[in-house]
Amino acid sequence: MTLLQMRQELADAMATLQLTTYTHIPGRLDLPGAFVAAGNPYIEQGQTFGERLVRFQVVVATQTGDNASETTALDELIEGAQAALEAADWLVEQVDQPFVQDFNNAQALVTVITVSAYETFN
Q1: At what angle do helices 3-15 and 67-87 cross, to 10 degrees?
Q2: Of the candidates 7, 63, 62, which has an alpha carbon nearest to the alpha carbon of residue 35?
Q3: Which of 74, 80, 1 is nearest to 31 (CA)?
Q4: Range list of H helices, the chain
Q5: What backbone torsions phi and psi does residue 54 show, to the nearest 5 degrees?
Q6: pTM for the full model?
Q7: CATH for 3-120 (3.30.980, 3.40.50, 1.10.10, 3.80.10)
Q8: Cα torsion at 14, 16, 19, 23 (round to 10°)?
Q9: Domain boundaries along the sequence of the chain
Q10: pLDDT in the model for residue 63
């Protein structure tokens, strides 16, 4: 599997949550939405010869609204994302603290979910 195919698999897993999903950092993010970016470190040595541990960040963002509804929406999105990603055989390593992010002059409450999987590239 290629890195692009892995990003697509992540975006597809997140699409089950009724989100606009992107396999890249979008120029404009439709909310609620999620996009996939390279993790840190991006690629490491795996457990066996030729295997690599690949890490991605899945950034999820809520619809804008008042603080209470945004917080609740993000909590529900995080819980749904964890379940969807784990069902697609991704290891959810961590969920970062939520923060406010500007997307084309509109603010959204977002968090970063770090996931990883082992892959042997051709």
Answers
A1: 120
A2: 7
A3: 74
A4: 3-15, 67-87
A5: -110, 130
A6: 0.92
A7: 3.30.980
A8: 40
A9: 3-120
A10: 80
